[in-house]
Amino acid sequence: MSIFIIFITRITNKIGSHAINTLVLNQKIFNITVKEENGHFLLIDAADSGEMFILASLIQHSMKSNDVIFLEREGTENTDLFIFNGAVNPLTKKDIRKIKKSLSYIKPEIIKLPLVNLHDETVWDTWEHWKYEEQLKIKADKDLAIINTSQLGLKLLLHSCSHLATSYSGHSHFDRNSTKSSPELIIRNMARN
């Protein structure tokens, strides 16, 4: 089995006394787009399975390392997206703005990101949907979206993205897994939708 690797930019910020590592990706370069619609939906669209595996790989990396994921928008038609484990990195909007502003003056580090390239079906053998309820806290507006998740929520996103990459399911809805005040998160594999 071959292991595929991509290179990702990572910056390190100091928020208070806490060092925060952030993976920075340009949505256009990686063919992943994020849009917020009317405060009700947050849409994450991946062009096809390869891009969905990149998304799964980022989430898996975040799960293991507690790095923050930043999908930077290319233009005003899209929305910047931050995904992080809120228990480890309790970021506020002010902290997120600080991370965004620091992109131009903090020297980035290039890291290797091994790509997930399959879906582990055994996760569904122990699936108990109630465990995953309200694991995603989603805030979104036209310019900035935040997914503040638990470790279990990251696991949910990882397995859902890899499932979308290997199946013909097209999209996943996370309304039951997010808090009642969150917009609905929809992740779509555009080529298979």
Indicate the topology.
Layout: E1 5-15, E2 18-26, E3 32-37, E4 41-46, H1 49-65, E5 68-72, E6 80-85, H2 93-102, E7 109-114, H3 129-132, E8 136-140, E9 144-149, H4 151-166, E10 171-173, E11 184-189
Parallel strand pairs: 2-5, 4-11, 6-9
Antiparallel strand pairs: 1-2, 1-7, 3-4, 5-6, 8-9, 10-11
Explained architecture:
The chain has 193 residues and is of the alpha/beta class. The chain has one domain. It has four helices and eleven strands. It has helices at residues 49-65, 93-102, 129-132, 151-166, and strands at residues 5-15, 18-26, 32-37, 41-46, 68-72, 80-85, 109-114, 136-140, 144-149, 171-173, 184-189. The strands form two sheets. It has a seven-stranded mixed sheet. A hairpin with a 3-residue loop joins strand 8 and strand 9 (144-149). Helix 1 (49-65) runs antiparallel to helix 4. The longest helix has 17 residues, at 49-65. The radius of gyration is 16 Å and the shape is globular. The model has no long low-confidence stretch (mean pLDDT 92).
